[in-house]
Structure formats: C-alpha cells, structure tokens
Recover the amino acids of this structure.
DNA sequence: CAAGCCAGTAACTAAACAGTTACTTTGTGG
DNA sequence: CCACAAAGTAACTGTTTAGTTACTGGCTTG
C-alpha cells in the first residue's frame, strides 16, 4: 500500500540521502520520544507519568521507547540530562564583560528569571527530582561534570564591584546565586497555590513584569554597601 | 484469646470510658490513617503514593481508609487541608505588637523559615499540589476561607516602619511575603539537587544557620530606605 | 545480491493497583 | 439483653501498568 511511496521518496537519483520520508529515521524517532517524555514527566512527575502516554504523544510504538532508552527510569534520566544541558548551554552564551558590575548582576538575575519563565518543564523536572532526593541526578556522571557557568560570572562581577567599592566585602557568590534563583523559582513553581490563596493571578503580564523588577531590586539591595 | 482482655480494659466500673484499649477507636484510626497518608503523599507525590502502602503504614485494613475518607483523592485533600491548617494555626500564635518594626519583620522571616525547616512534608505537599496546578486546593472551600494571618501582621509592621521613616514608601506586602517564603522554600525544597550540583551539603547545621541569617538580611535590605 | 542488522509493529503477560464484596466483631440505646 | 449500627477483616475483582515476545519490513555492506 505505502511501499511504493517509500521507495519513491527514499532516494532521489544522486547518491545524496535527501529529506527522507517519515519512515525509518532513528534520530527523529529518538528526539520525538525525548520531547514527548519531557512533557509527560513535567506534567505528571515520575510516579504519574505513563509510558503508554509517552509513546502515544511521540506517535511511536512503545517498543521503540525501550529500544532507544532501556526503561522508564533511564528515559527519565535522559530527559533530566537534556533539561540541564539546555540551561547550561544558555548560560554559556551570556557575555557580561563590558557591563558595569551592577548592570551585570541585574542581567544575570533577569536571565535566570526569564529562563525559568520560558522553560516551565525545567522547573517541574527539578521539583520531581527533589521529591526523589536527587536520586537520578546523583547517578548521572554526565551531569556531575556539567558545572554551572553562572557562578564564575557572578564571582567575577562581585570582584569588580567590590574593587569599585560598590558591593559589600562579605558577599558569598553561592548565596547570591541561590537568592536570584529562589525568587524566580518559587514565584513560578508555586504560582498555582499562591494565585488561589491570594486571589490574584500571578501569571498575568503586569504581575510577571513587576516580579522581574522586584527580583533585580532585591538582589542588588542585598549586596550593596 | 484477647477478648477477655478487651472486656476487662473497656470499662473500669465508674461509667467513665477510661484509656480504652487499642481496639475500636475511630478517632485514633482516622488520625493514624491521616498521619500515614501525609508521609506517603509527601514522599511519593500523588501519582507515586500507594493506597496499600498507606494502609500498611497506618497499621489498618485498607477497607477502613475508604470507610473514613472515600477514596484516594479525598484522602489526599484531607491531608492537604490538615497541612494548611497546621501552618495557619502556628501563624496565629505569633505576637509582634511590642516589637520594633525591623525586629518584627525579622521574626516573621525566621518564623517562616523555621516552619518550613520543621515541616518538610508541608513543602513537599505544596510541590505536589503545584505540579497539579492547585487542582485540589481550588476545590477546597474549607481552605479558601482560611486566610493567611501573616499578611495582616506584615502590613501592620510595614505601616509602623514607614511612619518611623525606616522603610520605603512603595513596599508591597505581598511581594515582601513572597520574598521571605521564596528564600526559605527554594533552599529547602531544592536542597537535594543543589547539594549535588554544588558539592556542598546544604542540610548541615552551619549552612542552615547561615541561610537563616541571609534570609533576614535580604528581607530587611529590600525594604529599608 | 544476499546476509545480517537495525527500525518498527502488534499483541501479549505478569504484576501492581484502586476500589469492592461479603462477612465478623464490638459497643450502645431502647 | 437484644437489636442495630458502626468498626473492622480478609479475600477478591477489573483495570491499568511497565515491560516482552515474536514477528515484519527495509537499509547497508562485503
């Protein structure tokens, strides 16, 4: 029925393997499983995620999922690793060397906030991973080698700011990073319970913009002399 | 075999129902189911929690769980409600009226931090509830009536501080509350991934104490003139 | 061009799971 | 003191679940 079609589209005369049809594309299959699994795990957690739901979302046969990833846990680990690689890659691209220290810190705070805002699935996976006390993260040699680029940039800015007499002498870069991350993470990951309890939709545009300004304000206020 | 024992202990001559034996104690059964369910849901989330595990932890027959709570979802809701009632009750007990504004804010920040620190199951339930976009919290009329006492106390302190010229004019009490809560929540709920990535155990005593001081410092720095 | 491997399918299985049935025991109010 | 309701048990059921088996189709390479 579709055999003729596959034959016709598989090759195109010159040896080049052109834009091949949907059939038989390992990389694409793998990627679509990973994307589907990311959604499913982010929406339902490890315990709530369903292997069958992932297969359906990816439009593949469940057997393929086991073929490429082994089992549910290894698939989850692959999802987690990809999510961390995503943020680490984005961090690398930041260039702050020609900014004033205060401006640089503000940029880092906004970067973290916006990354969280645009990647809710990353926040959700973090929540799931912490529920399980970092069981899979601790297993992953790949992720333990993948250090955050942010701490280095933060330290450099702090040094420059201190030299100029702008910042306090005793600022711990880790504390500073945790402060920025905490303000963004909590607001977004807990937005549903908070919105319900305070009767105010935290996801509305003006509220989001107000909170971004607040994060920058708090971060800078905490390190200034 | 044990019937005679039960008869002997059930009543003690005067009509008073003395310290009755373990048999047939509805309140105790209900309470032990609730305690077991709190642990199970906090450790595994909604999707990962097992009804059989709850029954076993509570030392009761699974049938009783359905007898008292209806089904798994209603039991989860009861657990969530009890957890919120716990923090709201603790909040009520705080008295700040004879403290200076700065001292009062510091006390509130430390209260929130210590409550989170001592009630990890509450943090975990919040995480689960937010994963599900506050699905059960929104259903609960009981919880929607139960307003946080903290916002009122916070506003009062802010007013007093402003009158004395200590605090900025434009501080939003909700932003202030979210700031304190965010700093505590993130540090504790994400301690496992953070400890793994930064290679530093955030749960160690000196680190916990340092973070408490940091929360107070940041909170106050963000509202001072 | 065939041998063999890789991608893919459909249908199955054993265990785990939430929830139920049918029953017994125990305390209490008329 | 007995009738009846509430508390409790044990064993069961239908469904969902992760993971498997046994197979087909197609691509590459010696």
């Amino acid at each position: 029925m579709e055999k003729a079609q596959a034959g016709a589209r598989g090759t195109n005369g010159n040896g080049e393997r052109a834009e091949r049809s949907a059939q038989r594309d390992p990389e694409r299959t793998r990627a679509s499983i990973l994307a589907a699994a990311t959604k499913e795990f982010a929406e339902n957690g490890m315990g709530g995620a369903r292997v069958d739901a992932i297969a359906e979302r990816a439009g593949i046969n469940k057997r393929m999922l086991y073929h490429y990833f082994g089992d549910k846990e290894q698939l989850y680990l692959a999802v987690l690793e990809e999510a961390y690689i995503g943020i680490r890659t984005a961090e690398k691209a930041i260039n702050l060397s020609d900014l004033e220290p205060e401006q640089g810190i503000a940029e880092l705070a906004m970067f973290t906030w916006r990354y969280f805002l645009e990647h809710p699935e990353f926040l959700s996976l973090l929540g799931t991973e912490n529920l399980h006390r970092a069981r899979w993260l601790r297993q992953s040699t790949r992720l333990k080698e993948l250090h955050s680029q942010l701490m280095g940039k933060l330290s450099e800015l702090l040094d420059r700011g201190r030299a100029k007499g702008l910042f306090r002498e005793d600022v711990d870069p880790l504390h500073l990073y945790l402060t920025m991350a905490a303000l963004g993470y909590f607001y977004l990951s807990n937005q549903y319970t908070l919105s319900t309890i305070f009767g105010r939709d935290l996801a509305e545009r003006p509220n989001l913009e107000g909170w971004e300004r607040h994060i920058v304000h708090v971060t800078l206020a905490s390190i200034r002399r």
About this structure: The first helix of chain A runs from residue 3 to 10. The mean pLDDT of chain A is 90. Chain A has two domains: 24-70, 81-225. The two ends of chain A are 75 Å apart (CA to CA).
